[in-house]
Hints:
Blueprint: E1 3-8, H1 13-24, H2 42-56, E2 65-68, H3 72-84, E3 90-91, H4 108-114, H5 116-125, H6 138-155, E4 160-165, H7 167-178, H8 182-191, E5 199-204, E6 210-217, H9 219-223
Parallel strand pairs: 1-4, 2-3, 2-4
Antiparallel strand pairs: 1-5, 5-6
Helix pairs in contact: 2-3, 4-5, 6-7
Amino acid sequence: MDTLVLVRHGESVGNVADARARSAGAGRLDLDTRDPDTPLSERGERQATVLAQHVATAEARRPDVVLSSPYLRAASTARVVAAAVGLEPVWDERLRERDLGVFDGLTGSGIRASHPDEAERRSRLGKFYYRPPGGESWTDVALRVRHLLLDLALTHAGRNVWVFTHQAVIMSFRLVLDGLDETTLLDLDRTQPLANCSLTRYRGTPGGALELESFADTRHLEEAAVEETNEASATEPMAPHEGRTPR
């Protein structure tokens, strides 16, 4: 690949519901959709439109191919941007959000109240390797990413590839492409927010590797005076002061 650009979807109604639930100290998000069907918020739609305008106004920024998670919030973001440059997104289920299993829709306080044994097990095992019942660990997501990167190297050599996906998946790309260890990845996730509709760009090298050029870039949103939105971490929470479910 010549370039690989990772785009986090625009703000979703799930992101908004999560913020409200954390603020109220609630145990569960007030949502009536499945995670795959959670749409963009109005602000998320504006963020996607601004990104589309940003991409369409410079030839050098335009993708040759657009891949996307089939989850609605990512798919909607991808459609808006792809349409601006005359492309159709290609859906790839390997780009879906991390599956939280029985924790889906719960805040940190909800997890501790509903599943105290699992909360204790996760505390012992650690965020990186812990797999919630019916869900995925970070390493499960990284395995999806590794398989996808092998396919991209075979099918899109020399092309500009844009990928529309979710926070945990983008962090897994960082893990794989930058050779991060567990501690470094979790520190990065905790200290550097990954905003909605942000861009993480990799540049291809003559040897075929991908080198990080920028991470969580939101200058296109700042220039258009569209509010930046993000969450504290891509990990499901356990500490009493934490609380979020990736959406």
